[in-house]
Design goal:
about 300 residues; TIM Barrel; 6-stranded parallel beta sheet; 12 helices
Length: about 300
């Protein structure tokens, strides 16, 4: 059943998300073929070749060849473990709202970029040696060339579609191209595998869920909404985030809002005070995944009260 935006807002406020069971058939792969070919064609317009990105860290003197090989092997091993953890959860076909709550980690997430404020977000994350996850929009990658590549030093990436539409309103072929095209473009530009997906406005239906799972992606939602997409000023954003912070939280923010950037220092100070470490979503689910029962419970499995909002 397709949900209209107003229905989604009401559902998010109530957070009585029904338990969904997704059963998929191998035949969906044939349906995806045309969409994936179109995605590759879209990606050909992007600049830059694929490269494996390492983790962000403090600046050091150049390493000797043997040291560089050891660091690269360690980074690649960590990235593989994170990707394995993400794809394991993706196999359930259920959205992720939070981590397992057992480690003092949170995942900061930023939607809708890259954009004019991206370099400021990167700078603040670097200054505090924190990591985040950026859910990128294909048209913004093309409008702001080079910025997605800069984000690699502090971030993992997720698919937020090509043009940020309300997906359930689209014909099937257009929906496939929005999702698969953005995944291919982000991978082409950043050189990183993309196994995370966030639907604009939380808009999903069974066909969208099948597409996301068949592409090997995990749908990532959140348990803490900063309220920046509703027009909250920096003080409101600070309040909303700090009120919900706890181990395992996934925080929704947007990198294209100046008030959000202004709120970051206070949010980062609260993380340090509460001994919480900001990591990427893949890092969170590798170190502190939700249990199957928690995942099946949806938002209620996070054990927090609902926040009003209108999605990513």
């Amino acid at each position: 059943m397709e949900h209209r935006p107003e229905q989604l807002r009401a559902r998010r406020a109530a957070r009585a998300r029904a338990l969904r069971r997704r059963r998929f058939r191998a035949a969906i792969l044939a349906v995806l073929g045309a969409g994936l070919l179109a995605a590759v064609a879209i990606a050909m317009g992007a600049t830059g070749g694929p490269r494996r990105a390492g983790r962000a860290g403090p600046a050091t003197a150049p390493a000797a060849p043997g040291q560089r090989q050891a660091v690269t092997a360690s980074s690649d091993s960590g990235l593989r473990a994170e990707l394995t953890a993400v794809r394991h959860l993706a196999g359930y076909g259920l959205p992720l709202f939070c981590g397992g709550r057992s480690k003092r980690m949170v995942a900061l997430t930023f939607d809708d970029g890259p954009g004019p404020y991206t370099t400021l977000a990167i700078r603040k994350l670097r200054e505090h040696r924190l990591r985040a996850t950026f859910f990128l929009v294909g048209k913004e990658i093309r409008a702001h060339p080079g910025l997605a590549q800069l984000e690699r030093t502090v971030a993992a990436f997720g698919d937020h579609t090509m043009t940020h539409p309300f997906l359930p309103a689209l014909p099937s072929a257009a929906m496939v191209q929005e999702i698969a095209g953005a995944q291919a473009l982000i991978e082409q530009v950043t050189g990183q595998p993309v196994a995370l997906f966030r639907p604009p406005y939380e808009g999903v239906n069974s066909a969208i869920e099948r597409e996301v799972k068949a592409l090997g992606m995990l749908e990532v939602l959140w348990d803490v909404d900063s309220g920046d997409s509703l027009g909250a000023d920096y003080a409101g954003i600070e309040h909303n985030v700090l009120a919900g912070l706890r181990p395992g939280s996934i925080i929704l923010m947007h990198e294209n809002r100046g008030q959000t950037i202004r709120a970051l220092p206070v949010i980062f100070a609260a993380l340090a005070r509460d001994h919480l470490r900001a990591v990427t979503v893949p890092e969170l689910v590798a170190a502190d995944p939700p249990s199957p029962a928690q995942l099946r419970a949806g938002f209620r499995g996070c054990g927090v009260r609902a926040q009003a909002g209108n999605g990513g």
